Structure formats: C-alpha cells, structure tokens
Write the structure tokens for this entry.
Amino acid sequence: MAHRARIWLHRAATCGALLAAAALAVPAQSAHAAPGEPSPAPSASSGASGGSDVSGGSGGGRSAEKKYRDMPLDELLEELQKLYHSAEESTEKYNDASDRLKKQRAEVKKVRGRLDDKRDEVDEGRKVAGALARQQYRHGSISPYAGMLLSDDPNSVIDQRRLIAQGVDAQVHTVERLEAAEKELSRLADRAQEALEKAEELAAKERGARDEVKKKLADVERVVASLTGTQLADLQRMEQREIDRMQAEFIASGALGTGARGASRGGAKAIAYALAQLGKPYVWGAEGPDSFDCSGLTSQAWLAAGKVIPRTSQEQWRQLPRVPLERMRPGDLVIYGAGATHVGIYLGDGAVVHAPRPGSYVKVAPVGSMTVIGAVRPDEGAKSMEDYKVPEVPKSAEKGAPIGTGL
C-alpha cells in the first residue's frame, strides 16, 4: 500500500510540477495591443478633392465627367495626379489595415488555442486531485489508531497518510495556479477579440475609402480615354516636362551625394527580381506573380533575396532602418509622399524600378520624379559589392504608360 501511495504521489508531483510550470509560463502580455492606427495622412476621399468638388463617385459620374471635360489639359493633369496619389495612399492604408487584421486573427487563434490547452490542463489537474482525495478518504475511513493496530507495519500507515496528504495539498495548489493562469488567458483572449473587432472596423473603413477613390479615378480616366490623339500627346508631354523638371531639381540639390556605391548581394538579387517584372501591370493590392502594386513589388523582390520585409510602404518606412539619401545604394527602398504612400527600389544612376499606379505597369523611372521623403535599407549591415555594376535597362522599360510616364 505504501508503494501504491508513493506511485500516486510521484504522479501527482510530476503532473503538478509540469502544470505549475505551464501556468507560470503564461506571458505577461500577448494580445494587449490593438492594431495601431495607420500613419497620419490625409484621408483618401479628402485627399482626392484637391479643391475640386468631385462628389458621388460613379453615381455622380456624368456631372463629374462633364466637369473634367471642361477642364484645360493642365488642370486635368493636375487633378489626375492628385487622384493617383490618393489612390496609392488609400490602397497602401487598406493594405496596411488588412495586414494588421490578418496578424490579429492569427493572434486570436493562438491565444484561444493556448486557452483550450490550459483548460485541458486544469481538467487533468482536477482529476489528479480528485484521485488523491479519494485515496486519502479510503485511508481515512478508519481511525488512525485502529489502522496502526491492524497493520503489520504501523510506521507504513503513518507514512502513507503523510504522503497522500502532502500529495493532495500539492495538487490543490497546482490546480489553483492553473485556474489563475486560465483566468489570465481568458482575459487575454477577450482583449484579443476586442482588438480583432477594431481591426475589422479599420479594414472596412480603409476599404471604403479606397473604393471611393477608385470611383473618382474612374471618372477622370474615362475622360482621358476620350481625348483625341493630339490632346493625349499634349497631356503626356506636360507630364514628362514636369517629371524632367523635378528630376533635374532633385539631382541639382546634391541629395544623392557623389560617387558610385555598390549593392549588397541581397540588394542585387532584389533588383534582378524587380527588373524581371518589367511590363507587368499595376493592380490594387497585388503582390505577384502576374501583377503588383508598389509595395507588393518591393516586398516580393526582397523576399526573393531571402529577406522578409513589411508588406506596405508605410510599414517599410516605419520599421526598416533609414539611411541618408547621400549614402543610398542600389537595392535600398526609396519612400515617396508625406504619408509614405509610394515606394520603389533604387537601381543607381538616379533611377528606380517601381510599380507606379493604376493603369500603368512595372517600369524604370527617375528617382526624383516624385516627392522623396527618404530611404530605407532592408539589409543594414550587409557589405556592398565592390564589383557591382548597374544593370542595363531596355529603353522600352522607361516609356510611359498610356497616360504618361510619371507617378
């Protein structure tokens, strides 16, 4: 009997120790933080107005289209560029919200799984405690004095009672710790669920803003599509002049510094991947293999180089190490727009490869053709290649989209 009691105690102590360790392993925080708000920037719908009353989206398409048809070409180009900027901004904000939503769903699933496991441990701990209690009851059904009189070994009776009592006490404490851990995990699961609901609301809001800009952009593009060949050529020339002016000013500012810098091995691989995508269309939210948006291209290019980076231009700007423009090297990411709404991969020699905008395709463009806010380096610490050469890019890769060569 003493041997059986020791077996029970050994099992109880082993189970109790394991369960107690599991209880103490509950992290202080896992799902406390709700998804962060997107970086402050003008909303997609307000950013698209640019002082023009473009209301009703496609529902008010006829009145909006008539207004655009009456615009001089330079004003139409300005309105188109504003809408392209707003479209990219709203797309990246929606992508960011969608990415956060995906992560929060995974977090909720993980916490709920841990909670289920902890509940199973509590149930098992209660079973062990109950078995020990029953064993104690059986040994306590006669008086200790009578038990010792009837036993061949009175000392063994005392040992059995003491061992069983110790086992019961230890298991009760273990169950108490497990129950406390279960309650904490339950609170974490509730907070994770609340964060998930907020993430779902944010994603729905950003999707609505993106879709509203898409409607407005469609109005303008229908007008552009109806232009005569001469008008369209004039529009493209206006845009190209603006691009050339911005690039010239950017280069003249000395922002790029002097001297050639080589890519890292990872940067060279990312560039090779991006250049292999030339000519593929820009599609909202796409990340390959047949189409891309701006950050879809950059994140996939660096993934091909063996480096996982954030999905959106805003998160790339927030999370990746920043480098001064004068120290930028091929393979670094160039970030554009006040809200970090666009991104391209620096090729060297004052050029980037990027997925510009709806209606365009992956191509090479002057690095200064948009408003640069900075650069980030996905592989900070990696050495530059001394024998790196900037890849030759086909001239066809620099030709404009149907509506121009810019953003």
